Amino acid sequence: MASSLTKGAASQETPASRSDKTLFGHPRGLAFLFLTEMWERFSYYGMRALLVVYLIAGGPDAKPGSQGGGLAMPEASSLAIYSVYVAMVYLLAMPGGWFGDRVWGPRKTVAIAASVIMAGHLILALPGKPSFFAGLAVVAIGSGLLKSNISTMVGHLYDGPEDPRRDGGFTLFYIGINMGGLAAPLVIGTVGQKVNWHLGFAIAAMGMALGLVIFLLGTRNLDPKSSQVPTPLTAAERNMWLKKGLVWLAVAAVFYGIVIGSGVFTVNWALVPIALLGLFVPVSVLTRIKRDKELTHSEQTKVSGYIFFFIAAAVFWMIFDQAGSTMSLFAEKKTTDNIAGFNFPSTWFQSVNSAWVVVLAPVFAALWLNLGRRNREPGTAVKFANAMLFAGLSFAVFAIAMAMASDGTKVSPMWLIMIYMLQTVGELCLSPVGLSLTTKMAPQKYASQMMGVWFLATTAGDCTTALLKTAGVNLNGTGVILGEAVVAAAAGAAIWAYRKRIATLMGDVH
Ligand code: GLN
Fold first, then answer.
1. What are the beta bridge partners of residue 339?
2. Per-domain residue ranges for the chain?
């Protein structure tokens, strides 16, 4: 693939020492990173596809006649748990990047992370509520550790930002992510929803185990830089972090000790503080970077421009990540699970986004290349504005489908397929572009942490849905869905209107 969706991604590396062996012109290490991330995403998206249906299964909010044996939780808490879980996966990408940078180096961090994820899915494979929540936390920690480090290692494979193969490498990597995302609901979703939930989670563990084996087999093909710890933690810093961690642990233990002891504990006592944290962290991280006196004037200006993109991305992911929550419930309860006489489990709908990515990614890569040749490739702000408009459009269509189903009729699967197509067009204008932009606009001092900052936009978006849900808002209501569509479209229109001003803030980045 000649062009890419991720122009200039991870541009901070120095030239890497290269192995002569290549695979279709790309460093051989790419194949191993591609397959590792494919299996990691297979486990992540497979479990994500099951999450909400498993939480409500066997309870009053489950679809009549559906498989029991879930946690029988109310729909509202289930949706909030889902959003908080997904938010944490992306929040933890930031400390994950820090571990790669300062403690273990990216290669060792990924190997440890994959083992942690596998352990998490195995814990989920055990029946019962305590093991479920423990497993969820372990998977979130592992995924956070893995996500930013594996992306950084892709960058290490190429000779700096000017390597002509680099963009194509990131495009292939994004396709790998989505091949995992495509297969996961079909395999894990079907087994979990139709045979046994816990067997589904166990298959997720097997997928991650395969990914880990492939990664370990491929480590000698990675760049030596992937094993280095760029800025090792000093003993004094380690003690300071340990002390801080213990203090916060003690504060949480005392707080929850009092709440549980006084008998008022409900799931919201866990969800609301975490969701608030998920909004507080992105705001404070961006504020800290923006106010850092050590940044040059041009770096500070770029950070101001980046904040526009960050807010837009948060709104985008808020809508996009509802694939596993509101849209999953719509698929389960209000959509026909039958095409031409063929019945399928509702989790299959969650493959549709990834299927569209696999189909459309090469089209977009060719489109940018073609427009670029004629000097007409849109700037980042315009791409982001388009992404927001498509996200808004997808939820406008969702609102129509929801209204059609309001009298109890089940709508055609074509509605969800169309909604996912619109979202994927938006995703391809925003997600790979955002990764690239993040590394290009990163101030030198924060270069290695910026990948984690980008993922915080997803955290902020998901925590917004979690808080709305815990506040009693009906996210499956037509009015709310339409409201979200309007917010996304308005954000897109604002970015479009201010595109020239944003371009000035971006300086030499386009
Ligand atoms: N779908 C992509 C992935 O799973 C991007 C998700 C995100 O950045 N929020 O990696």
1. 342
2. 26-232+266-506
Site of tokens 């006084």: 262
* Of 173, 177, 179, 142, residue with least CA distance to 155: 173
Q: What is the pLDDT of residue 5?
A: 63
Check if 317 has its Cβ closer than 6 Å to any atom of ligand 1.
yes
Q: For residues 154 and 432, give the distance between their C-alpha atoms in angstroms, rounded to a whole number.
A: 13
Cα of 433 vs its chain's centroid, Å: 14
pLDDT computed for residue 509 by the predictor: 74
Fold classified for 26-232+266-506 = Growth Hormone; Chain: A; (1.20.1250)
Q: Which two tokens stand for residue 224?
A: 């030596």
Q: Is the CB of 78 under 6 A from ligand 1?
A: no
User: Angle between the 105-124 and 197-218 helix axes, to the nearest 10 degrees?
Assistant: 160
Find, among 39, 460, 107, the residue nearest to 280 by Cα. Answer: 460
Q: What is the pLDDT of residue 507?
A: 82
Atom number in ligand 1 closest to CA 458: 9
3-state percent helix, strand, coil for the chain, nearest multiple of 5: 75, 0, 20
Reduce the DSSP state of residue 338 to 3 states and report it.
strand
Contact 455, 93 (CB under 8 A): yes
Instruction: Give the residue from 286, 215, 293, 304 showing the smallest Cα distance to 454.
Output: 286
- Ligand 1 and 438: CB distance under 6 A: no
What is the rounded CA–CA span in Å between residue 394 and residue 492? Answer: 13
- Residue in 6, 148, 322, 431 to alter for ligand 1 test, most ligand atoms within 8 A of Cβ: 431
CA 464/CA 426 separation, integer angstroms: 20
How many whole angstroms separate alpha carbon 30 and alpha carbon 19? 12
Nearest atom in ligand 1 to 37's CA: 10
Give the torsion sign (CA, 121, 123, 124, 127). positive
Ligand 1 binding pocket includes 166 (Cβ within 6 Å): no
- In the chain (510 residues long), the average pLDDT of successive 10-residue segments reads 47 45 84 97 97 95 92 94 95 93 94 98 95 96 94 84 77 93 97 96 98 96 89 93 96 94 92 96 95 93 94 97 96 93 94 97 90 90 96 98 95 97 96 84 82 94 96 95 97 95 84
pLDDT of residue 6: 55
Q: Which amino acid is at 420?
A: Y
Angle value at C-alpha 462, between 461 and 464, nearest 5 degrees: 70
Residues shown for the chain? 510
Q: What is the 3-state secondary structure (H, E, C) of 98-118?
A: HHHHHCCHHHHHHHHHHHHHH
